[in-house]
């Protein structure tokens, strides 16, 4: 084991919009981090060696602590690096509430627009993978429906883009004022995705000049200080650390989960994904942490948000 403070490592790939959210979040705090590029499609054996089966992008690693989902990443970064804060106003609860929409219905709408507009030009392996994740078991029918409904889907996206444009019409630099916050990263990744992956995206966004000005401001924040790392190096880092000590008891947990319970955690959608099984070391209304061991990476703590994730109790 090493006494050196662990670096921040992000397992991601350049084209991932959700990873872009995390990268902007690093930039807001001016953080230095290591970049491990992972495959766009499963299997992702070196990532799942750390997570225990979770395959979505991005995943943040700090030593032997593995943070799944951008909500968990933002929460962990705010705790470790409180200044500058992700919450420059007093409405932190509203930001978390809005993030359930930006990460859920709004992002799903953007995915349908992007995948639906690609039509037959979408590579079959990518269509099967992302279609299964975002459109359910009958993803092929979902893609056809999205293609047929593109004008309707664009109309549904036009309304929230108009809301953001109005919010920014007083000339403010960011959504909450003159300081960037987590809410900027949360919305930016959707706009970044629409502009970069939908052929009609730039024309669509040109209707919203205040939004485009904000988009340039957020892009100018950058990603912090980045240096590459290989997957093998990241696994070696995990093996050289023990997870940070963390324990807690949530006496109000509706499922009766407590430290020592064995659980399986997976996204609360029918995406055909493998769950992560481990022993609970911490759980509250926002976060659940499970301990697991890998023969090479050693002892690991895998952290998930509670919102948007299903926890199945194996034993208490």
Explain what you see.
This protein has 316 residues and is of the alpha/beta class. It folds into two domains: 8-84 and 226-315, Glutaredoxin (3-Layer(aba) Sandwich); 92-220, Glutathione S-transferase Yfyf (Class Pi), Chain A, domain 2, CATH 1.20.1050.10. The chain contains eleven helices and ten strands. A ten-stranded mixed beta sheet has the order 5-2-1-3-4-9-8-7-6-10, sandwiched between helices. Helix 1 links the parallel strand 1 and strand 2 (32-37). The protein starts with 7 loop residues before the first strand and ends with a strand. The mean pLDDT is 95.
Uncertain runs: none
Category from helices, strands and their pairing: alpha/beta
The helix-strand sequence is: EHEHEEHHHHHHHHEHEEEEE
How much β-strand is present in the residues?
15-25%
Going across the biggest sheet, name each strand in turn. 5-2-1-3-4-9-8-7-6-10
Number of separate structural domains: 2
CA-based gyration radius: 20 Å
Work out the number of β strands.
10
Shape: globular
* Terminus-to-terminus distance: 31 Å
Average pLDDT metric: 95
| Main sheet summary | 10 strands, mixed
By DSSP (H or I, 4+ residues per run), the number of helices equals 11
At CATH's second level, what is the architecture of the largest domain?
3-Layer(aba) Sandwich
CATH class of the largest domain reads Alpha Beta
CATH topology of the largest domain: Glutaredoxin
Helical residue percent band: 40-55%
Task: Please describe the topology of this protein.
Blueprint: E1 8-12, H1 17-29, E2 32-37, H2 45-51, E3 59-62, E4 65-68, H3 70-80, H4 92-118, H5 124-135, H6 139-148, H7 150-167, H8 182-197, H9 201-205, H10 209-221, E5 225-228, H11 231-239, E6 262-267, E7 276-283, E8 287-294, E9 298-305, E10 309-315
Parallel strand pairs: 1-2, 2-5, 4-9
Antiparallel strand pairs: 1-3, 3-4, 6-7, 6-10, 7-8, 8-9
């Amino acid at each position: 084991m090493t006494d050196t403070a662990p670096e921040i490592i992000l397992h991601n790939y350049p084209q991932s919009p959700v990873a872009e959210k995390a990268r902007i979040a690093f930039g807001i705090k001016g953080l230095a981090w290591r970049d491990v590029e992972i495959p766009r499609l499963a299997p992702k054996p070196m990532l799942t060696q750390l997570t225990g089966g979770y395959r979505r992008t991005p995943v943040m690693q700090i030593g032997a602590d593995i943070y799944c989902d951008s909500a968990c990443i933002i929460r962990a970064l705010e705790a470790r690096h409180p200044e500058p804060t992700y919450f420059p106003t007093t409405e932190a609860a509203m930001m978390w509430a809005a993030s359930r929409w930006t990460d859920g219905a709004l992002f799903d709408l953007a995915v349908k627009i992007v995948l639906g507009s690609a039509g037959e030009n979408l590579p079959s392996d990518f269509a099967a993978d992302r279609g299964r994740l975002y459109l359910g078991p009958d993803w092929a029918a979902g893609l056809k429906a999205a293609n047929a409904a593109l004008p309707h889907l664009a109309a549904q996206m036009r309304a929230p883009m108009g809301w953001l444009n109005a919010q920014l019409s007083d000339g403010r630099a960011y959504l909450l004022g003159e300081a960037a916050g987590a809410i900027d990263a949360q919305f930016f990744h959707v706009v970044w995705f629409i502009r970069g992956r939908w052929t009609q995206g730039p024309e669509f966004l040109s209707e919203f000049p205040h939004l485009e000005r904000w988009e340039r401001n957020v892009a100018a924040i950058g990603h912090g200080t980045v240096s590459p790392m290989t997957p093998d190096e990241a696994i070696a880092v995990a093996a050289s650390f023990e997870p940070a000590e963390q324990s807690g008891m949530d006496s109000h947990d509706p499922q009766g989960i407590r430290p020592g319970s064995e659980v399986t955690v997976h996204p609360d959608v029918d995406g055909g994904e493998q769950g992560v099984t481990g022993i609970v070391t911490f759980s509250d209304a926002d976060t659940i942490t499970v301990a697991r061991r890998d023969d090479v990476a050693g002892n690991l703590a895998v952290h998930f948000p509670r919102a948007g994730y299903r926890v199945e109790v194996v034993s208490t």
